């Protein structure tokens, strides 16, 4: 596990700032009729205009800048010409490489009016991320993060995905350690100031399982139920934690 210097964390804050500017821009572009390919073109142009490089494009052969994951797609949906429809929920995941450092974040958006269940799923997933971030400080054990996520999610009858996990991030998109969204508390290494973790709960409304489409990427729920995903890159600091690319206070 590599510790980052204060200077490195500032560069990672800048990389994540670009990511969040993209995700803010997506908010304005989400509407019935918009295509995920349009969102992807916006994101790539914005990132390059800001002096960054899309981090997912060509990563293990991934063909786009964004992952756009609609309804029963959990993560890694590939942008295409299919129009968004009112009632959809869509997870948008964005990674940026900037001055040698990676930023990675995701949000789930509502398209027009959505069902109460879809709203609840989004709110519970977002809240599980906040609760996880609140326990991050030096001395917290790594597995406490997943424990907090799982406990919150299961309280509402939803389930956490096991097959994909959060991760360390820095000079690589994926660094050690893996950060599962489930588990017992009090296990694993202690967090230390200078660690940077991408925390990313993926929450299914129904069964926790996944299946991957023939494209090798698109990961869906096995039962066709909805899934939501939020992600922040978070630095462990002496006094607690800092969400990178976001204005402070850290949890807002
Ligand atoms: N946020 C995801 C992750 O950290 C997105 C990866 S998409 C990929 O794993 F295309 F880059 F694999
Ligand atoms: Co990630």
Task: Outline the secondary-structure elements.
Elements: H1 6-29, H2 36-49, E1 53-54, E2 66-70, E3 73-75, E4 89-98, E5 101-110, H3 116-134, H4 142-155, E6 159-160, E7 166-168, E8 175-179, E9 196-199, E10 202-204, E11 210-212, E12 219-221, E13 227-229, E14 232-237, E15 240-243
Antiparallel strand pairs: 1-4, 2-4, 3-12, 4-5, 6-10, 7-8, 7-9, 9-14, 10-13, 11-12, 14-15
Helix pairs in contact: 1-2, 3-4
Bound molecules: 2-amino-4-trifluoromethylsulfanyl-butyric acid and cobalt (II) ion.
Cobalt (II) ion binds at residues 104, 167, 198, 200, 231.
Overall spatial form: globular
Mean of residue pLDDT values: 97
Helical percent range?
Answer: 25-40%
Low-confidence stretches: none
Q: Please, how many helices?
A: 4
Give the helices and strands as they follow along the chain: HHEEEEEHHEEEEEEEEEE
Class from helix and strand fractions: alpha+beta
Q: Tell me what the CATH architecture is.
A: Alpha-Beta Complex
Euclidean distance between termini CA atoms: 28 Å
Bound molecules: 2-amino-4-trifluoromethylsulfanyl-butyric acid, cobalt (II) ion
Protein described:
It is a single chain. This protein has 252 residues and is α+β, with helices and mostly antiparallel strands. It has a single domain, classed as Creatine Amidinohydrolase (Alpha-Beta Complex), CATH 3.90.230.10. Helices cover 28% and strands 26% of the residues. It has four helices and 15 strands. It has a five-stranded antiparallel sheet with strand order 8-7-9-14-15. Strands 1, 2, 4 and 5 form a four-stranded antiparallel sheet that branches. The protein has a three-stranded antiparallel sheet with strand order 3-12-11, with no helix packed on it. The two termini are 28 Å apart. The model has no long low-confidence stretch (mean pLDDT 97). It binds 2-amino-4-trifluoromethylsulfanyl-butyric acid and cobalt (II) ion (CO).
